Amino acid sequence: MKINQFAVVDTPFETQLKELATIGFYDEPVQVAHAKNATAVWRELLRIAFPEVQDGRVKFRDIAINTREDLAGYLNSGAPVTEQVFNAVALQLLGFVEDVDYTFDKVAEAVATINLPLYHKAGRWDADDVLTAWYQLLVTHTRNGLQFIDDLASRGYFMKNNVPLFFNGKAMATFDTSALIREVVYVETDVDTDGDGVRDLVRAEVIRPDTGVKVPTLFTASPYYQGLNNEANDALVHNVDVALLRKTPNTLTYEEIKYEPEQEALPEAHEIAGEVTETTESFTGTSHVDLNNYFLARGFAVVYSAGIGTRHSDGMQDTGSPEQVASMQAVVEWLAGDRLAFIDKHSGQTIKANWSNGKVAMTGKSYLGTLATAVATTGVRGLETVISEAAISDWYQYYRDNGLVIAPGGFPGEDMDVLAELVYSRMLDSADWHLTKMQWHGFQHSTAEHMDRATGDYNTYWDARNYLNSVPNIQADIVMVHGLNDWNVKPRQVFRLWQNLQQLPVVKKLYLHQGQHIYINNNRSLDFADQMNLWLSYKLYGVQNQAASQLPDVTWQANDQAETWETVHEWGTTTPTTLPLAAETATVQYEDWQIADDFATYKQDFNAWRQQMLQRENDKLDVNRVVFVQPAFEQDVVIDGEVTLQLRIKSSADVGLVSTMLVDYGEARRLATTPQPQGVLIDRGTGWQPTPLVEFQLAKPTTEKMISIGHINLQNRTAPWRVDDLVPDEFGDVALTLQPTRYRLPAGHQLGVIVYGTDFEMTVRGNQDIRYTIDVEQSQLIVPLQDNTQK
Q: Xaa-Pro dipeptidyl-peptidase C-terminal domain: from which residue to which, for each copy (predicted)?
């Protein structure tokens, strides 16, 4: 087992004493013992380290010093405190298991292997050493995923006085989550998406601690939050078993399709009848974000809003639109004191967020993180930071790619209108649905027309939903989290945002993990929740904890080792290396056609199809692919950024698409992309919203691993908005940039690239009889390769 902690702040001794006093570990008995000796100090600290009992001394006989002596006997003997005995006890307090995680004759080795940030000093310790070691122990992670001080909190150490308390720069769980205030407000926006002439109201649900202290807010914008229309969504999924169509060539430039927002007069405001200080509506629990739950126990409010076109709100649902973003921006403005909200949709009674300190962070994964990113690009006041996980920065890159209609991994046939249908939760209230049904159908018809599945080209509709265009407006500091094996929201989404942010004077932090479309806040080997605690205590409470410099710029989970997280300063800045493609002949061919039975099989199980495509030894799909393999590397190398495949290629038809996969060939145990539950629930406070502790584990050996993927329509060789001509059997040049990655390729492994046509999971599946020919000598692979020593 290995634990990686990056949120432990180096703290001077005098500050340690003050903080220990603040949390009750440097009370009068400890201070008296401090004047005596190290053993007396240690005894007093241990006595109050078992909050589940009145006097912790009853637990001393349950703890061993070595194979012969328990803690009670050792303390009574007056023997000195040393690193060996302190850490032997520390391992047990932290929940590690003898003969599994450590042995008494190798305590130091176990501490080093597990990577615990415990105090190190040879020889006999004095009282100051014990206090410093205790401070370090409190911020060290237990076997079960919490800092020791948070583990103590979960066992009832802190009195719930509803007052913020910070230790080692991080907020402690001192708030009573059994008495949270839940209230509903309706925020007035500046948009009128249902065309009734009045500004749309959006429902926001507030969960906050019952305290007289003004608190900051974690706001999650989630169109899913008010319910889903699964049946309607499924009925609208598009058929992808359609032919790739020829498009009429054009010479469009970006300027011709660029989105320019129209300056329109504000819709009519709602009438105000007065102002009140209490809401009249509450709500019961619903599905909440785990990271938000963690902070509710630590003195942060949490707000959820589904935005326009959702249950209990006004308006039409329009995936990723400027209007949708504006509706979420309005909630931030209300929290910052810059916008009106009402206690209901009819009385005209307004209410202020008088409990808010005006500072907001936006959180969430996928669509939730997407809207957090989008709101940040408005530059709205009050938004101090965003923690966006697996977020979209450009909707075109989610449902399209290089002139192709592309599905997010696992969801063939989904599109902007399908997602809108899923979350138009006004359907769930019968009266509201009957009032809006005809308008909604008309709105969806317009969406289908503008998103243009027929061509897959980038147009003004998509440009309006490309948040990268507005990155220069960002004022908030940004934390980004993304999976390098996320083929739903693919890695390019965070890579492009990361690149664009480099030009801005904001703090940006990036976490790259080996998972799919997941959260990582409950991962055992990384202290992500602690890091976000450090970050939000700084950003929202103003705690001077050096968070901006303490947290690494880029944290990368190694793909070839378990429980290993490395830190680097950049991503994607490595100078690329050009590698030739090798084949036995000057040209190679493949065809994009399957017999009916195979076509039907691969449609039903695209995972099986992809696995067959990846396996070099499996020749069943040889006619449908070309595999280029580089010589084995003599040393470990790291692929850092975007790989580009430059092809000279021709199609036998006047249409064509190219798909490609970058592959690691070589037998190895590789990390599973879904973390496994560890059989433990970790507490988010004290008896509050427990969540499973998980960890990425090494799977059984395999001979190949897909590293990255890419797709392009051969008629969009120049740009996604421009259509080039494609003459049958005429060679042309195409540069296909694959999804970015950071991947360590071990010595002895080979880098492969597979070129093919239809992607049964992601592209349209026309089963067209098309043959492709590649001029091998005029084609090459451009790879940003680092040697393994570069950081």
A: 533-782
